[in-house]
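Example 168, ligand zinc ion.
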Amino acid sequence: MSYETTLTCLECGHANPVGRTQCEACGAWVPQTAEARSIAHGAESEAQASPLVEEELAEVATRPTGITVLAVLDLVGSGFSALALAALATSASLSGDFGGMALLYLLIAIGYGVLGWGMWTLRSWARIFHIVASAIGLLGFPVGTIINGVIIYYLTRPHVGLAFSAKR
Ligand SMILES: [Zn+2]
């Protein structure tokens, strides 16, 4: 961006800074070229976009790495449940306990699929959904308790909450 561009007054020859509509020296109207207008407009836009706003926009647009990892794990979990369901459906009759297991796998596949998609696209409900799911997972002592404790801690960090805070 050059600020040295000047507009020469047709009346007196004074070199006016870009953006002036009247000559500094004689007050005559200064002709505005298209280039001069765009330069002046660009300088204006630059001044209006404060660093804080840009920072907030970047924060909202960026998915934290941990969320990406959780979203992928959720989708992988959904895929494995779908595979387990398919295996069950092809190898056994869907009756009695098998029917119950099949339903469980189906619900897990759908639940984790929706959750993974929600996490990936930073839906605010997905964070709450995941915290609730992880709270249930805390019961799987000791491994589930540790893993889900870490996940809940991570999902309740302020910068993670901010990533989900955009209106979607
Ligand atoms: Zn002039």
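Summary: Residues 5 and 18 are 6 Å apart (CA to CA).
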